[in-house]
Specification:
Layout: E1 3-7, H1 17-25, E2 28-34, H2 36-41, H3 46-65, E3 70-74, H4 81-91, E4 96-100, H5 105-118, E5 124-128, H6 150-163, H7 197-202, H8 207-221, H9 225-228, H10 241-246, H11 251-260, H12 271-292, H13 315-323, H14 329-341, H15 346-359, H16 364-374, H17 380-391, H18 406-413, H19 418-423, H20 457-469
Parallel strand pairs: 1-2, 1-4, 2-3, 4-5
Bound molecules: flavin-adenine dinucleotide.
Flavin-adenine dinucleotide binds near residues 239, 240 and 245.
Length: about 475
Amino acid sequence: MRQLMWLRSDLRTQDNTALHAAMGAGPTIALYLISPQQWLEHDDAPCKVDFWLRNLVELRQRLAELNVPLLIRRAPHWRDAPQVIAELCRQHAIDCVQVNEEYGLHESRRDREVAASLEPLGVRLRSHLDQLFFPPGSVLTKSGSYFQVYSQFRKICYQRLHTALPALVGLPAPQAPLGIASDEVPAAVDGFATPSDSLRQLWPAGEDAAQERLALFAEERLAYYQDSRDYPIVPGTSQQSTYLAAGVISPRQCLHAALRGNQGEFDSGNPGAVSWINELLWREFYKHILVGYPRVSRHRAFRPETEALPWRDAPQDLLAWQQGRTGIPIIDAAMRQLLATGWMHNRLRMVVAMFLTKNLMIDWREGERFFMRHLIDGDLAANNGGWQWSASTGTDAAPYFRIFNPISQSQKFDADGRFIRTWLPELVGLNKRDIHDPSAMGGLFGLADYPRPIVDLAHSRERVLQAFRSLPPLE
Ligand code: FAD
């Protein structure tokens, strides 16, 4: 029974459910589709596309060790996928196509259409749970609906994890060679610029690189995670989001690494490990939300009443935020970190998102799109969840009246200004008191190279509070 392993966001050989199933069922060929038109529609960042390509080069090698050829085909848009895959199945006499489930609306539609096009050929599409610990729809409230509150969702997850820990899937044994050559992985795809070498070096490709990073984190940093995770200058978080988003590492591998570092405990023992597992469950939560509340994939607010908010049309302010020249150092430093590295620290993602949506009162969808276009770890569910949380339009949203003051956040989480100095060389000479708000230095001490704040924090805070208070109650 010939198998086709259709790779998507699962670019690894170890602990890969569908690959394991395919190779257990028969001789296997692997496939990856290059879909630039679709990727552009999804605002996938050039650095993310480059990361996929670099990982495919590594994966091709790992698959070759298993004697699995990797074929690369172009399906510019996912609507082209059914025809491309059906053609390949005919050509190679495939009996079954194996995939790991993906959860966006477009992904689900693509898979339905591919399955329908294969049916007349007598080819099955078999999908597997792999990106998540629990299938969406299996963690529900007593009344059978999806949870809207993370802490309640997490409680059920813990109960399940205690009774049935998702097991790792072994590396399949090599198969007999099929005599089919692997395709070359393109070095670049039109429409997606190759990022700088310095960005690429921050994110080495391949399972080994991901595993090394995970092991280093679990051994040296996990124990201190809870205390260090909020300080952007400290390498206190795992930086696994990039590898998780592309599936170069699995959430099960992350969970098992955390448990190994915590004597097998989930919710007790080392507070660092517990708090990190909680983050893996945030990831899980937002993917379940994507399936349970599909409107969030359609650019709609999770809380419909917030659709009436009078967002400002302020292109100059938006541009200043995007380019990191708002005159608020912590915001500008964070945005420059994003532009230079494709990644931003979680604390700062919240701070810049609140600043855009609350102080500048610009629609969260603008921020969501800009993040997606620049993040190497861009993930629809987590990004949408993070933006809607910050804008107070989402699940578990920050109450609208709790608005971060970016300067206080800066003083608290970058107290000596080291993060700011790393990204804003123009402020390198300021002391740790002035660096958070150079505009407050007043008098003759204006900085020639650094703008004054584009918005008054106190006034803009009142403006957005008033807008939220004026929202009509939902019928
Ligand atoms: P760690 O602290 O080491 O956490 C481990 C893993 O848990 C992460 O790799 C990630 O997979 C998951 N995780 C952690 N925090 C969250 C969270 N709040 N929501 C969902 N999953 C989480 N994360 C993305 O992976 N992709 C995105 O596009 C994304 N966009 C975001 C946008 C905004 C406005 C906000 C506030 C958060 C966003 N996040 C996103 C969540 C979070 O900021 C990143 O997952 C985290 O910074 C990644 O760094 P890390 O791997 O070192 O995290």
